[in-house]
């Protein structure tokens, strides 16, 4: 699912909202998550999961094309840990109409 599909789905499930309002809501939520992570914070959405940032220290690596050693600087990367409810829904044993297979991987449509 891409952002525009999410906006359309929210607008369809909430007929009292205009499409533009649904777009503003999605943008506001994503902007707030991004801003909190940029400040080094953590975002917990119960039943969904936790967004946080992790530090990757500087290290040396190899360029796979040339084999030369390169230095990789320290960086902060986003990290997502799914919540227990999401894990249970993804790993439920009962067949579900919301599960789709693509490229050898199975995806569940919420």
Automatic annotation (TrEMBL):
Alphabetical UniProt keywords: DNA recombination, DNA-binding, Plasmid, Transcription, Transcription regulation, Translation regulation
Keyword check for Transcription regulation, yes or no: yes
Tell me if Mitochondrion is a UniProt keyword of this record: no
Q: Where is the signal peptide?
A: none
User: Looking at the record's lineage, which domain of life comes first?
Assistant: Bacteria
Q: What does this gene product do?
A: This protein is one of the two subunits of integration host factor, a specific DNA-binding protein that functions in genetic recombination as well as in transcriptional and translational control.
Subunit structure, interactors included: Heterodimer of an alpha and a beta chain.
The family assignment reads: Belongs to the bacterial histone-like protein family.
Indicate what this protein is called per its UniProt record: Integration host factor subunit beta
């Amino acid at each position: 699912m891409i952002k525009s599909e999410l906006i359309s789905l929210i607008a369809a499930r909430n007929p009292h909202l205009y499409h533009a309002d649904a777009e503003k809501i999605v943008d506001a939520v994503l902007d707030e998550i991004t801003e909190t992570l940029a400040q080094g914070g953590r975002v917990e959405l119960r039943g969904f999961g936790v967004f946080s940032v992790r530090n990757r220290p500087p290290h040396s690596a190899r360029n796979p094309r040339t084999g030369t050693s390169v230095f990789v600087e320290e960086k902060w990367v986003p990290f997502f840990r799914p919540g227990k409810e999401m894990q249970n829904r993804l790993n439920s044993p009962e067949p579900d109409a919301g599960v789709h297979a693509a490229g050898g991987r199975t995806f569940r449509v919420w």
